[in-house]
């Protein structure tokens, strides 16, 4: 029993890795069988955003830093790899490595400036820095980023195993590997002394300072690590969508990451992943449902907003902030407490 | 020379827009500690309400007093929406800063989506009076009237806000509340009424900015608010949270810098420069130019 408790994440991971071998159809949830390329593509996107949300939670939920600039590092991973492959003809591993290293360096440099201020001012500075990234992407310097059009990935330079609809399953495994890596790193960090300092910073920064530890340095470590994980996620996302679009650099992307983390449960082990997966899935599914006839049958006042996934998700998010402050991960403890109050205690 | 004058006036016009958005943000943040991501929504609501009124409201139109009426309707809509947001959504989360930010984030996402559902994602042509499209000659430079309209509107709002803060009882409460909210509460004043008031004022100014931005750009789209909002945030941080005069000064600096560097240094360079200015100001004076003080 205790083994089951301890190793269920490994079991879940193995089950997810074996999922492409099953041909189950889940009517209503996915259009095709689970191992069809369409379903695998959506699942892979869900896994990538699960990993991204978990990486963002290292800042928000575990260290207490509210950054509005996470999209910048994600976009550096996406555009950096894309530009190096498509414009300069680098092979994928080298391009990915260089892009992630560059994004990490940028995270160190910008984090060093942004962390000089605290609280909301930090949020605004990160927002402004990320905005520079969004502007640069949109303005298309030297024709590098492709501006509003985005930059399609030159598939001829990629390994054959990652190209084409037939190979979606490989991308799915790649996304799963990314999620596994992020969770492992975060778990190791959380168990380490550094992770305890992060939690201390979240709860009471002054106290950490009084203990003789330098809050600035630890926050910079968290910021850099989180930025590097985001850039790595960007590489996987690029392969998955076969191109970069300016949306990945927008502040809206950071805001959706924040929404995922809060929906899932900030600071918990699997909450952010759950939030990321669920949000991405609903975003896709609601777009399909909105385009289908199901919503059009409703009266006009309802049909308009309900066909917009972000309206539905934004509303759910607001309600969650009021009524489920711990997110999905906090739901179980709340339900347990509820059950205890509802069922009468056993008689002695 | 005439280019410099035209650039200066255009930069000041941009600064006027920034100020209209930032003044409300700054007061809300200074008093209630709410970083309001939904402020861009108030702007869009104002723009769309003006657009709607000019076409549908009896007596309103695209010209003369009809346009004034349309703008007044837009400002009223922005004020009402902002007050409702404060009363219904922000107030229950009083003093829980992070949750308040999260709610405004959700509101901005859902609000933009709702506007898209209602009016379509594409920009709509905005009604603008013919006289705003004419040019006047100032010292040899031919300056479009719409920029002057922006500057005059911002100056009027600045004067009205300063007068309100200085000479009315509620202005006094707001100024005191920005400086030390606990003390104001301890003196037996319900500071939450002032929260609603600053939200309403901020909503009105943002809605006015939305209507004027529509006149300036000639179109209105659901996402027009969010792009202005980021620069308004920068203005607020540079100017010092809670300070109206600081916002005005920072708006002028940001507007002029952006305009001139974009012209001489290539498109996009000005926006980058503004962020560099923000980084410098924060390293040099983390509390912003004005520190923390209303007025």
UniProtKB/TrEMBL annotation, chain A:
Pfam families: BPD_transp_2
Alphabetized CDD domains for the sequence: TM_PBP1_LivM_like
This protein's record includes keyword Amino-acid biosynthesis: no
Subcellular location: Cell membrane
UniProt keyword terms in alphabetical order: Cell membrane, Membrane, Transmembrane, Transmembrane helix
Record keyword Transmembrane helix present: yes
One GO cellular component term noted in the UniProt record for this chain: plasma membrane
Chain ranges passing through the membrane: 7-26, 38-59, 71-90, 96-115, 120-138, 158-186, 220-240, 310-331
GO molecular function, one term: branched-chain amino acid transmembrane transporter activity
InterPro entries: ABC_transp_permease, LivM-like
Membrane topology annotation: Multi-pass membrane protein
Protein name: Branched-chain amino acid ABC transporter permease
Organism: Catellatospora bangladeshensis
UniProtKB/TrEMBL annotation, chain B:
Transmembrane segment boundaries: 6-27, 34-53, 65-89, 101-119, 148-165, 194-216, 228-256, 263-284
Pfam families, alphabetized: BPD_transp_2
Subcellular localization(s) per the UniProt record: Cell membrane
GO CC, alphabetical: plasma membrane
Superkingdom: Bacteria
Transport in keyword set: yes
Keywords for this protein: Amino-acid transport, Cell membrane, Membrane, Transmembrane, Transmembrane helix, Transport
GO MF: transmembrane transporter activity
Record-level GO BP terms: amino acid transport
InterPro entries: ABC_transp_permease (IPR001851), BCAA_transport_permease (IPR052157)
PANTHER family named in the record: ABC TRANSPORTER ATP-BINDING PROTEIN (PTHR11795:SF442), BRANCHED-CHAIN AMINO ACID TRANSPORT SYSTEM PERMEASE PROTEIN LIVH (PTHR11795)
Family assignment from sequence similarity: Belongs to the binding-protein-dependent transport system permease family. LivHM subfamily.
UniProt-recorded name of the protein: Branched-chain amino acid ABC transporter permease
């Amino acid at each position: 029993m205790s083994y089951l408790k301890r190793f269920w994440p490994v079991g879940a991971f193995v089950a997810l890795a074996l999922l492409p071998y099953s041909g189950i159809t889940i009517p209503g949830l996915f259009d095709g069988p689970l191992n069809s390329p369409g379903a695998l593509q959506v699942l892979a996107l869900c896994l990538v955003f699960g990993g991204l949300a978990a990486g963002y939670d290292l800042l928000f939920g575990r260290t207490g830093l509210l950054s509005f600039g996470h999209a910048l590092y994600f976009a550096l991973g996406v555009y950096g790899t894309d530009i190096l492959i498509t414009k300069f003809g680098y092979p994928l591993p080298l391009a990915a490595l260089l892009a992630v290293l560059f994004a990490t360096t940028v995270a160190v440099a910008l984090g060093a400036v942004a962390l000089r201020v605290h609280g909301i001012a930090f949020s605004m500075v990160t927002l402004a820095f990320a905005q520079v990234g969004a502007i640069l992407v949109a303005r298309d310097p030297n024709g590098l980023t492709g501006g509003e059009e985005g930059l399609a990935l030159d598939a001829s330079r990629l390994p054959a195993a990652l190209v084409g609809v037939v190979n979606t399953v490989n991308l799915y495994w790649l996304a799963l590997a990314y999620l596994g890596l992020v969770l492992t790193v975060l778990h190791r960090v959380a168990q380490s002394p550094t992770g305890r300092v992060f939690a201390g910073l979240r709860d009471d920064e002054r106290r950490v300072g009084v203990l003789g530890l330098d809050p600035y340095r630890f926050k910079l470590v968290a910021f850099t690590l989180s930025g590097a994980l985001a850039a790595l996620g960007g590489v996987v996302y690029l392969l998955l969508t076969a191109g970069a679009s300016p949306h990945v650099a927008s502040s809206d992307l950071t805001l959706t990451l924040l929404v995922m983390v809060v929906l899932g449960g900030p600071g918990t082990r699997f909450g952010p992943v759950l939030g990321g997966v669920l949000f991405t899935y609903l975003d896709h599914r609601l777009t399909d449902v909105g385009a289908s006839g199901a919503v059009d049958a409703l009266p006009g006042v309802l049909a308009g907003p309900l066909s917009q996934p972000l309206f539905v998700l934004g509303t759910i998010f607001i309600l969650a902030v009021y009524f489920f402050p711990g997110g999905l991960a906090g739901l179980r403890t709340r339900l347990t407490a509820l059950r205890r109050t509802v069922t009468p205690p056993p008689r002695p | 020379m005439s280019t410099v004058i035209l650039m200066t006036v255009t930069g000041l016009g941009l600064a006027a827009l920034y100020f209209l958005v930032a003044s409300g943000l700054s007061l809300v943040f200074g008093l209630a500690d709410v970083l309001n991501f939904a402020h861009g929504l108030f702007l869009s609501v104002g723009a769309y309400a003006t657009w709607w009124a000019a076409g549908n409201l009896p007596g309103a139109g695209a010209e003369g007093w009809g346009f004034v009426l349309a703008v007044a309707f837009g400002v009223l809509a922005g004020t009402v929406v902002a007050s409702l947001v404060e009363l219904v959504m922000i107030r229950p989360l009083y003093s829980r800063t992070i949750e308040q930010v999260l709610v405004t984030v959700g509101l901005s996402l859902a609000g933009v989506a709702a506007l898209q559902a209602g009016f379509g994602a594409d920009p709509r042509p905005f009604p603008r009076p013919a006289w705003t499209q004419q040019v006047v000659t100032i010292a040899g430079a031919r300056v479009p009237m719409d920029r002057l309209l922006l500057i005059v509107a911002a100056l009027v709002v600045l004067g009205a806000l300063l007068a309100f803060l200085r000479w009315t009882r509620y202005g006094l409460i707001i100024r005191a509340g920005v400086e030390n909210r606990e003390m104001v509460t301890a003196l037996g004043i319900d500071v939450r009424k002032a929260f609603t008031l600053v939200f309403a004022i901020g909503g009105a100014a943002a809605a006015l900015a939305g209507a004027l931005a529509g006149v300036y750009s000639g179109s209105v789209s659901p996402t027009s608010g969010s792009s202005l909002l980021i620069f308004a945030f920068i203005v607020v941080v540079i100017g010092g949270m809670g300070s109206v005069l600081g916002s005005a000064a920072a708006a002028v600096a940001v507007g002029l810098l952006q305009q001139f560097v974009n012209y001489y240094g290539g498109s996009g360079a000005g926006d980058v420069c503004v962020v560099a200015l923000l980084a410098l100001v924060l390293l040099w004076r983390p509390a912003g130019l004005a520190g923390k003080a209303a007025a």
